[in-house]
Known about the structure:
Strand content: under 5%
Number of strands: 0
Number of helices: 14
Amino acid sequence: xxRLLIKRLALTIPTFVALMFVTFMMxxxxxxxxxxARRGERGITPERHAQMLHDMxxxxxxxxxxxxxxxxxxxxDFGTSIVSKSPVIHEFFTLFPATVELTFxxxxxxxxxxxxxxxxxxxRRGKFFDQSMMVTALAxxxxxxxxxxxILILFMSNTLHLTPVSGRVDLIKxxxxxxxxxxxxxxxxxxQKGAFTDVLRHLILPTIVLGTVPLGAIxxxxxxxxxxxxxxxxxxxxxxxxxxxxxxxxVHALRNALIPVVxxxxxxxxxxxxxxxxxxxxxxxxxxxxxxVQSIGRRDYPVLQGGIMLVAIVVMLLNxxxxxxxxxxxxxxxxxx
Length: 337
């Protein structure tokens, strides 16, 4: 297992270097610079413009800027925001709990509905429920996040007035310390009446929007895996012994069918972080995605470069953990690798 860990970590190094280079170069291809983006309608003299570029080091040759960028990352310095003047890594970890909370709730929503749906669809293979659920899962997997989010806002918030439109909490009604950054936890610790419920109401729409795509993928993967397992000899033997359908399906079949499903869930975690960019923008969710999208308009190069690399590190570490988990669940994978 230790050799597998070292091997997987070594394989992430080329990916990290390539992403670092691509991110740096793509940002330099975007028209404009941070000075032009910040000045707005206010005029600025060419001399002052040149001086500000020099202060930010943006007048240096591209190779020199890239070398300084790589040197900083290798020493744990992901840059300082041009707009806020705060270290990028500090802003990242301040906003990261909001993204983690949303991603966790979305994945929990997808698992809680996707796995039972996939299991029941496999058991009812070819029936109306099976066909209708798989069509619905395919539609959910293919649905554009920005369109689905706007539809839910119009229906749930504007028409039925059941959920808030944006934010994580109503700061007018509930204002309390946030030591952990996870408002589901902080609202309980605050002891304020109704604080936890208010946080849940703000989470409903973003959770559904972000969790719809992995829900469809998990449901289809669970159904496919269950269909394979249900035809195995040991499942037929369990049925022949007179075991109840509930025990046969949930103890003997589902346990073995979950191996590829767990792998699918791990892969979906990385895509959720990417999908959170759009979801957080739609619902003004103060997380990493919203932070990076705002930085694009500001041409805040350090935030974009450092933020994307920090997100990449998180995703790559998740993939390493997924590989190790898959090896623990299925010992055959350890020997194959």
